[in-house]
Amino acid sequence: MPTLAIHNPATGKLLTEVEADDAASVAAKAARARAAQPAWAAVPLTERKACITRFRASIVAELDSLAATMTSETGKPIKMSRNELNGLLGRIDFFLKEVDAQLATETVYDEGGMTEQIEHTPLGVVVNISAWNYPWFVGGNVYVPALLTGNAVLYKPSEFATLTGLAMARLLHAAGIPEDVFIAVVGGGDVGVALQAQKIDGLFFTGSYATGARIAQALGPRMVKLQLELGGKDPTYVCEDANVQVAAESLADGAMYNTGQSCCSVERVYVHEAIYDAFVDAFVATVKTFQVGDPASEDTYIGAITRAPQLAVLDAQVADAQAKGARLLLGGARLAGPGNFYAPTVFSHVNHSMELMREESFGPIIGLQKVSGDAEAVQLMNDTRYGLTAGVFTPDAQRARAILSQVQAGTVYWNCCDRVSPRLPWSGHGDSGVGLTLSTYGIATFTRPRAWHLRSV
Ligand code: NAD
């Protein structure tokens, strides 16, 4: 069998090697999932919910060691690893609370001996190809509702979060999910390709646009349900009536939390010219307080860049911005020593000719652009191929609604940013993807409606 080497991105050291899959083992796993799925769908919902409730309890019981594992292989600051695991609990609670209503058969017509009903059946066998940046969140958004609604799941964690993915499988199995109903599939892109080739009923992907587009191309003729949760270039506009200090602190956190490696990280900030200088000063002052260093340390706010190749993307954006006249206020370079570290980086005087303002950075780097007013801000916020989130800071609710309703984005924020709620759908416009997770829609998406026409005479 092939093996997968797992490194600590903060030290460069080898953590371990695990057995990986190949095309033959992927096919065997898919066959096992196919065989097991009908029996799982026949398990009463109360029992399926009991399994997920036990899974939740085991996360609580092992939270510290699960957080340490995630930090060791992704470089996520340890406090943020614990935050992610705690945040997952609320998502699980939401799914447990809402799943009954989503699965209940609906009678939509009943007259003169004719009854019409909608039944909600599982899709069948679904594949989840996942990302490393929030492995518990983006994985749990898929496999928790998928399992609750009676699907079997082939789960491929990112090759940069494999130990975390294997921990999920261990806990799900210990909680009573049959071994063939949730199967971890280990490896990189080649294993993802092998998964696509199986007879499957749905593929739920979280990752980059480039990979998502390749998967869409391969699955196009196959008529397999496909959801793609991809990248973003998430903008926020700070109006001249905003509280400068509050907005700067919130947006610096939104840009740099998780070392800037969030799909909904603030990636572009537009600031009204009347408060631009004051905002830039407050923003830089806030970023200067962010502690960079060992992700395992309690004080660390900026950890390691998980994937080494991303350092070159950040270098290129910095060089491009500088060549085109941006003003570097902070950072702008890799940090010395072992591991993948990048200094928190802030640019002013940026514009849309720069890659920094156009392409996902996925790191602790941000451009602050001056704008003349709402119209220019809206035009710039929409000048992107992505459309995941967008925000506005102003005390004026009407103005915020007027601006945000013109912006192409699946999620919009008023006086907040970098926030996800289990109660709201998570989706993107444009190259940020198709389909959604979370909310009651994010449970229904793992079912297919069957139309029943029933004549009793
Ligand atoms: P990635 O595209 O490199 O990898 C994602 C997954 O795809 C991994 O499991 C990888 O092994 C697999 N893969 C790679 N090539 C494949 C192929 N040809 N066929 C099938 N699978 C293949 O992305 P990443 O670096 O893991 O994640 C970062 C990206 O994810 C960013 O763009 C980020 O914005 C995005 N993201 C989006 C959301 C969202 O909800 N929209 C959430 C988290 C991350």
UniProtKB/TrEMBL annotation:
Q: Which domain of life is it from?
A: Bacteria
Q: InterPro entries in the record, alphabetically?
A: Ald_DH/histidinol_DH, Ald_DH_C, Ald_DH_CS_GLU, Ald_DH_N, Aldehyde_DH_dom
Q: Give any Pfam family that matches.
A: Aldedh
User: GO molecular function terms here?
Assistant: oxidoreductase activity, acting on the aldehyde or oxo group of donors, NAD or NADP as acceptor
| Keyword hit for Oxidoreductase | yes
Residue ranges of every copy of the Aldehyde dehydrogenase domain listed in the record: 4-450
- Active-site residues, Swiss-Prot/TrEMBL: 229
Which UniProt keywords are given for this protein, alphabetically ordered? Oxidoreductase
Q: Which family does it belong to?
A: Belongs to the aldehyde dehydrogenase family.
Protein name stated in the entry: Aldehyde dehydrogenase
Organism from which the protein derives: Rhodoferax lacus
